[in-house]
Specification:
Mean pLDDT: 84
Strand order of the largest sheet: 4-3-2-6
Strand content: 5-15%
Largest sheet: 4 strands, antiparallel
Shape: elongated
Number of helices: 18
Radius of gyration: 29 Å
Number of strands: 7
Low-confidence stretches: 493-498
Order of helices and strands: HHHHHHHHHHHHHHEEEEEEEHHHH
Distance between the termini: 23 Å
Helix content: 55-70%
Length: 498
């Protein structure tokens, strides 16, 4: 690839990444806007109403990824991205005029199409780069995922200024106008400064474009992407109530901490592309899935106090109880010292605790004058195990798992242009759709798990099980392939069909 062609490819990559970033920021805007409108009593929507307003854009952007990806193969990324950005700026602008729940729901459905920007970008970036560059290029393109962090970090502050710190509540209507203008401007820039290009087999019929979807490999990649991308989208929203309820922090603090999770995903996607090019996607995916299992397992243990029967005191011989107090039981002439409760966890919020700790004590079950027999229980033992689930340790671990998933998103998509070079849009759209559906299903599933178990960490239990399933399926495919046997497959992820 000569320097001129590479320069043009880099220019296309820049505008694709910019378009993806503003699209992703707009896709996530309801998370901040709807929360503000409800918290300030501007609209009286219940939790179910809010859940649908948060979920509808994610659902639309997910299910439409496949048809939009296929259209990208047919007409090219320039036209698709331009139409998407300018087209979605219209319902975003109209959102500023909405006064009813129905209007919000319909407009959220239409601007939710911004979520399809990923399918367009993947297809458009891939056709401009050779295989040796595609991992890095797609990884850099994935930096646009930081659009969610941009909205989480800056939209609340922007709302505060637009409403004069609450003095002018109707000032919220300027926020969707600002987003609409940004989308339209970037759409115009995309049209002016990019060059259209389609895959070589862009004249395929619909049936031929859908043909690769029969391949189980596509669905396996989709499951991986459900984990690394779908769970990222789900937790980008779920972590706000998580921090507020589990750690009793303010909404502003919860938003900042949630951004600590979402920001590394976009940044490390670029790292994942480079690592996939250098070391191979198979090796990277092994590390990603193993890390996801370990890190999610560490997040399973909730803040808790567990009481369990402990070591008690039994009489070594029969006799009469002559003394009972907080520290001693005496039977005839035999004294039995009692372990007293330390109360060391009474002010635990003031202490820094990383590992679980315990407190052990004993309480008399006899009184003066009782006749006891040999091996009769004199004092019952109690053991309390306490785990604080330190918030800052939790934050560090979710940053690590976010970075891990960011690397994984690039590793998954590294394979699509290699295995399906002429159906990038269709396959990328299907894989992206499955991943996007994870962002829609995740919060709903987490809510049900919370209701059933009563544990906020039940969401991480699901992630741990899903990570294990992905790892076992991948390992089974690799070992089966090795047994069939060709030495040249030893350093390949899978045999690429000729």
């Amino acid at each position: 690839m000569n320097s001129t062609s590479l320069s043009k490819a880099h220019r296309i990559l820049f505008f694709n990444t910019l378009g993806f970033l503003v699209s992703f920021a707009g896709w996530m805007v309801n998370g901040v806007l709807v929360t503000y409108l409800v918290d300030n009593g501007i609209f009286n929507w219940n939790l179910v109403d809010v859940g649908w307003l948060l979920g509808i854009p994610v659902l639309t952007g997910s299910i439409m990824r496949l048809p939009v990806g296929m259209l990208t193969d047919v007409v090219g990324g320039k036209w698709m991205f331009t139409i998407l950005l300018i087209g979605c700026s219209i319902p975003m602008f109209l959102l500023s005029q909405a006064n009813s729940y129905g209007a919000f729901l319909v407009l959220s459905f239409f601007f939710g199409l911004l979520g399809t920007s990923f399918s367009i970008g993947v297809g458009f970036v891939s056709v401009w780069y050779p295989k040796s560059w595609q991992g890095r290029a797609l990884g850099l393109f994935g930096f646009g995922l930081t659009g969610s962090a941009v909205t989480t970090l800056f939209a609340p502050t922007l709302l505060k200024r637009l409403t004069d710190n609450g003095a002018n509540p109707e000032g919220w209507r300027h926020l969707p106008i600002i987003y609409a203008v940004v989308l339209a401007v970037v759409g115009i820039l995309f049209f002016l400064f990019t060059t259209n290009k389609k895959p070589e087999a862009s004249d395929k019929t619909l049936i031929k474009l859908l043909q690769p979807l029969k391949n189980v490999r596509v669905w396996r990649f989709g499951l991986y992407y459900f984990l690394v991308f779908g769970c990222f989208v789900a937790f980008s929203q779920w972590l706000l109530p998580y921090f507020v309820n589990a750690y009793n922090v303010s909404l502003i603090t919860a938003g900042f901490l949630a951004s600590c999770f979402s920001l590394p995903v976009g940044v490390f996607r670029a790292v994942g592309g480079w690592l996939s090019d250098k070391y191979g996607a198979r090796r990277i995916m092994y590390w990603v899935l193993c890390s996801s299992v370990v890190l999610s397992f560490l997040l399973i243990i909730p803040r808790m106090q567990i009481y369990s029967p402990g070591t008690g005191i039994m009489a070594v011989k029969a006799g009469t109880v002559t003394l009972v107090n907080d520290s001693l039981i005496q039977v005839d002439n035999k004294a039995y010292p009692i372990v007293m409760r330390s109360h060391k966890f009474d002010h635990v919020d003031r202490k820094v605790m990383i590992l679980p700790a315990k407190d052990v004590w004993q309480e008399p079950v006899v009184k003066v004058g009782d006749q006891v027999t040999k091996k009769q229980l004199l004092a019952q033992g109690t053991t309390m195990i306490f785990f604080k689930a330190n918030m800052w340790v939790y934050v560090v671990i979710i940053i690590l798992i976010g970075a891990c998933w960011g690397i994984g998103t690039a590793a998954v998509f590294k394979h699509i242009p290699e295995y399906f070079p002429n159906e990038i849009g269709a396959v990328g759209g299907m894989v992206g759709m499955i991943g996007g559906l994870g962002g829609f299903v995740g919060p709903i599933l987490f809510g049900y798990l919370l209701n059933v178990t009563g544990l906020w960490t039940s969401s991480w239990m699901f992630v741990c099980l899903l990570s294990c399933a992905c790892l076992m399926w991948m390992h089974r495919v690799i070992t089966t392939m090795m047994k069939k046997g060709a030495p040249e497959l030893a350093d390949k992820f899978e045999k690429i069909p000729g």
